[in-house]
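Obj.: predict assembly geometry.
Materials: sequence records (below).
Method: joint structure prediction, all chains together.
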Amino acid sequence: MINERMINALVLAGLLALPLYALAVDEPFTITLVTRAVILALAAVGLNIVLGFGGMVSFGHAVFFGIGGYAMGILAYHAQTYSTLDLGLFTTEGTKLMPVIWLVAMAVSGLVALIIGLLSLRTSGVYFIMITLAFGQMFFYFAISWAEYGGEDGVSIYVRNSFPGLNTLVPIQFFAICFVILCLVLFLKERLRASPFGLALNAARQSATRAETVGLNPMRLRLVAFVISGMITGLAGALFADLNRFVSPSMFSWQLSGELIVLIIIGGAGRLMGPVIGACVFVALEHFLGGLTDFWHVYLGLILLGIVLFGRGGIIGMLTRTEGAHV
Amino acid sequence: MSTILIIEQVLNGLQFGVMLFLMAAGLTLIFGVMGLINLAHGSLYMVGAFAAAAVAGATGSFFLGLVAALAAAALAGAVIEMVVIRRLYAAPHLDQVLATFALILIFSEGTRWVFGSFPLFLDIPVGLAGPVTLPGGIEYPLYRLALIGIGLAVGLGLWALIERTRIGIQIRAGENDREMIAALGVDISKLYTLIFALGAALAGLAGALVGAIQSVQVGMGEPVLILAFVVIVIGGIGSIRGAFIGALLVGLTDTLGGVFLPELFKLFMETGAAQKSGSAIASMAIYILMGLVLVWRPTGLFGARG
Amino acid sequence: MSDVVLSTHNLTKRFGALVATDDVSIDLRAGEVHAIIGPNGAGKSTLIQQICGGLKPDAGRVELVGRDVSSLTTQARAKAGLGRTFQISQLCMEDTVLENVLLGAIGAGGSPWRFWRGALGLTDMRERAQAALHRVGLADAADIRCANLSHGQRRQLEVAVALTLNPRAFVMDEPMAGLGADGSKQLTALLDGLRAEAPILLVEHDMDAVFALADRISVLVYGKVIATGTADDIRASDVVREAYLGTEA
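Observations (raw structure tokens):
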């Protein structure tokens, strides 16, 4: 029997130690791999607020990941081509500054989450799953037909965007940025979970009737959770695009939405570090199995099937022998 | 804009719509009776297409290909129902989504393993090749016309099966009260396997039929699957009639939108911009349609449950 | 009639041909327990749902402390002072007992729109929650997960959550359901004391509890109130006898 706190601490420590070790033995690729896991974890942490705490199975969170990616792509594209972006109310030359890009990514994701949430939270159950999925496809096809920004080919950025005082081109420094953001978001999420809002949201998942009879509005709680969640996943999208120096419609794909859910389930739904563990396992599988066979998705599928049919609670659930949130 | 073009596009929309109906009918039937959301339905579509392409390629007979598609998809459906799906009927939707998502991964990569990454091609049967002249002098591909006919015939057959046969009575009873029909001595698990295989066969049929006008490749099922979801969300989950109306709506909206929205935009925009924004909006038209339907009726046009 | 706290006026609800609630006018006065009894299918649940906001009546209205609440949502009625308990417990099974009552305090007295401070750290809310637990005798169970409570304790917790709302009126749907004789006796004693805080509209099948508690009893049959009166009135009523035992008993 292992304590969940211990696991959490171990995971974070490992996530920090591995890149440092890679730096010492000069293996920059490993650092990039861990950075990838950290960013995917961040995206899934965002989704987990909706899925694990709120009980809403959003199958369209790639929308926010993609919006974050395109926010980065569009701003950086205009900055690197010295062209003007005309937004009607004002024009801008774009920017290469990460903090500005992040803010834009989060603002736009939040706004879109508000609109999607208002429409899809009218429904529940299977309808909600399908509608969020359909919204994802809508953005996917829109991005494909968006010729200004490369259509199907997307947008490439020559040089990674900058952060004041750091050289983001050095893998370990970019990793540090992502890792700090992840820790910060995990901290905020923990506060959120314990706050009155978190308590109310959690109650609305377990029994909407209960929430209503004590004067709470489940729909409004869910909407706010959806917006917060979208903003976090949007931020992750901006970082992901910066990691690859590339954004394309595939960031909006339904497979990505599915994979984000898979990350959470592998780790354990509704748990603080569930998405983080899930992302690490996912990236490790992708790397090692992908190196052994071209068909690693078959094994991923089998593992996933095993977890769903036999191992509810994910890895954390198995290690601590406790059940996670029921979604 | 000529009348001929309009009629042609309407026929294209209908053809697309009835093929979507074949997919959506199985999905909605499976949800209506078993309460299961099946993402792997698109994989069964793909299985049908690959089986048809492989058998037709080996034997030279399109008809044998179709038979193979039906058999392979129904068999694959029955197998996954017995091995995986039946454990999920009582599970939360999230489990169903994840497990069937896992099945997609397994099916897609498995197919790539067997057939490789290159698309296969399925030829239109000789008897149905070439255009046919419709009244009014419109030339239209005979094969596409045949698809419309097959789609409508299957729709009619399905209606007759559910409304007029013993098995149909059991299916309808299964939607309402599974304990009751189990108590009446109907083997519910056999019935479920049968319904699942039937839905799978319809998907396989659609895959094979569409495979002859598109290429047969891994991943072909999922875009159609998601459109079929849009169809049943619009029509109301669980309703075959809703699936039929929804499928035609989606088929027509998608096809006509792609052609006419840019034209429409040209009326008040310059040509280049109209082309661009017209096709951008057209690519989202069905989702906008879905959004509007849901604002109006959150459980779809003919839906009862949420 | 200035002491009427909760009342329904000509409440009517039809499901197709079935009239589930037929022109029901009842009232709940300060300090009393008013029990609603009636055979299964008499429309008691439908009535409660209309009072609390889960169902919209076809005709008639609901008033709480002189205010027409008919068009309010469930959550607005809760805020206005309706403390409801359920026949089938609606508790957050994954949460602790304290968290369950805290939820009530936050929903009715505080605000859920606080994202930073821990809910357990809100002293006023916590005190309100603990007072409610103390009142129902669950103070020692505060940190137990709700899923691990006994059936009787869950019943008490339901009442405690309703208490945190500082309600003007309680509406209780079969609080005794599933309790043994001892548990029933305990809960009866608890409810007996509660009427001083707020009057109780009590739907109940346990007749011992009803006759022990109720100041007034209304009998609902086929959606209609056929009699209202004290326990003795009801016992002596021919109409009630007829409804329960058939003609000429």
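Conclusions so far: Residues 4-320 of chain A form a domain with the ABC transporter involved in vitamin B12 uptake, BtuC fold (CATH 1.10.3470).
To do: check interface contacts against the pulldown list.
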